[in-house]
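User: Good morning. I'm curious how adenosine-5'-diphosphate would be positioned relative to this chain. Could you predict the structure with it bound?
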Amino acid sequence: MIELSGVTKRFGDTTAVNAVTLSIKPGQLCVLVGTSGCGKSTTLRMINRLIAHDEGEIRLDGQPVGEFEEALLRRRIGYVIQSTGLFPHWTVARNIGVVPRLLKWQRQRVRERVEELMQLLGLPVETFAGKYPHQLSGGQAQRVGVARALAADPDILLMDEPFGALDPITRRTLQHEMLTLQARLRKTIVFVTHDMDEALALADQLVVMDAGRIVQQGAPIELLREPTSPFVESLLGGQDRGLKEAALLRVKDRMLPLGPRLLASERIDLEAPLSQALSVMLWHRVDRLTVVDRDDLPIGELSLRRLLGAKPG
Ligand SMILES: Nc1ncnc2c1ncn2[C@@H]1O[C@H](COP(=O)(O)OP(=O)(O)O)[C@@H](O)[C@H]1O
Ligand SMILES: [Mg+2]
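Assistant: Good morning! Here's the predicted structure, ligand included:
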């Protein structure tokens, strides 16, 4: 759906993006990650044509972006940035409805859409519709930013460090909400961040950039297990990679059915990440956990050996 091939952008002597080739399938959440100045934002902004590229091709559904009408691009591509870009003198409702109004939707339809989105993003209409941006917390403002980007039901969402200014707890909450939302909406998302933990938590497809180039891309677990350069290895956490990998795997991937032994003293949810199972083992000084399902019923067990990936027996 989104294809970049040999895309280059220069600002004077700086090559901000250098021969980038990248293909993002419909419904995928692609994360561009890399240190500040490596060309992430520029790449993103060439996709919605906020910046024109110098060389190469950018296509949406096979059609060069340059050939799309402005209004169609605006409808098809939502854009979320760190500072939210909300209009300070407009209410939340008016901010969310800006693109539908630009697209000349009927007033009633705009209102219904705005209310639907506020519900979806966990912003009760009665409480928030009339508030102004300065009356919102960082997390609430970011939710409004996402609602606004979704307003015209775009199939593509571009997100540039959207959670960058939030405290760690709000940030993790919004990351989690985003995955829930994405499971439901299945947008094609290009998400930019310099935070590797955020990248690993969100990405279907992880793209590591350095100095304007893509240095490696693939599924998060592939990059963790087989970084092709010391740079990617260190960016992915070096000796901390074990815990990052464990955070990507789930208890259900490694558990065994309940055996003849007594239940272990500590329990773990089958959907929990392996890193959490390891933490529980460390904390309680045990090497075996009882795995429970959603209703808290025992359905299996996880040994330290299994957690480590050893063969059963
Ligand atoms: N409008 C601009 N004018 C001049 N240089 C720019 C402009 N935008 C970005 N750059 C330069 O291009 C490079 C990539 O920037 P950017 O895409 O913003 O990186 P990132 O988002 O990864 O931090 C940097 O060296 C930056 O200074
Ligand atoms: Mg940037």
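Residues 11, 14, 16, 34, 36-42 surround adenosine-5'-diphosphate (ligand 1) (CB under 6 Å). The longest strand covers residues 14-24.
Let me know if you'd like a different ligand tried.
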